# Entry
Amino acid sequence: MKILYDLINLYKALSKNYDVILFSENSILYKKIFRNFEIFLKENKVKYLLITFNDNLKIKYNLIDNHSFYINFNNLDFLKIFFKNIKKKLIISSTPKFNKKISHKSNYLIYLQHSLGRLTNKYLSNNLRHFDKITIVNKDQLYDCINQLKINKKKLLNYKYHNHNFLIQKKKKLNKLRKTILIASSFYGNHLLSLIDSIFIEKLLTKYKIILRPHPEITKNFEMLQKLEILKKKFTKNNFSISWSPSNEKDILEADYLVTDFSGIGITFSLSKATPTIFLLKSRLDYKNLEESYSTQYIKNIAIIDSFSFENLIKSIEIINKKKKYFKEKINKFKFNQF
# Structure
């Protein structure tokens, strides 16, 4: 049934008259970024087509059926056929893999940046070269493109990070009986969720409130979902919660400390709260993944890194508490220079 649905959508998408294509990787990025693009294009009366893959925005955002600008594909092959057959279009994509290698050569492709992290990991570096323009949001990404990836500076566009206002706005101090630890796990490698057990959580709950934030891709891992369900049933008190919110802003505002492995949330947390991120790592692969995600400058300015253990976490929190003023000045200065 989905194949028939995609076949009909392929015909519709190829037969429409438009100038700009927006390819949104998922509904989260649609809400964060592409919704504003739509508003801008509508106001300027530009004909456009919004494409998604296996993520039905009509249902999630209650888009009415006569919104002819929206097409969703469920099959990757049909999506590739679409990109190969459209011609002379401006394509703005949030997905590195959807680049000029799979597109007709007459199209003009722009990669839309939606992260503060490095651009030199294998996934990005193998694909970014195949765009006409690449948006960058900070000095680290500029350095990566020019010095590491050897991309011509003319291909780079300075772009305001979609969470920029959140990073620079002053945060209200919350009066709380307990400090809150946000535990955010990556999906890749030995992610933090695989290391944490109920004993670890139980020890922390004697003094702290905990927000556990799994990576969205964890829904593909049945074993980890079972583990989350066990933790949820065991710790039902007000001091423990699991956050599935698409945006991390609410969790960051509530948190006093962030513990992660090598998740990109560390950049947003540290720059917005002027507080170091605690990275708890176990294997050499973890350290390698951290270096791929964070530049030397970010690690130097926002990170406290240690091997995974409850004792090391408590020690890191104590360091943050003792040197609050020092960390605040250091991180704010670094943030100012980055943007």
Remarks:
- The longest strand covers residues 48-53.
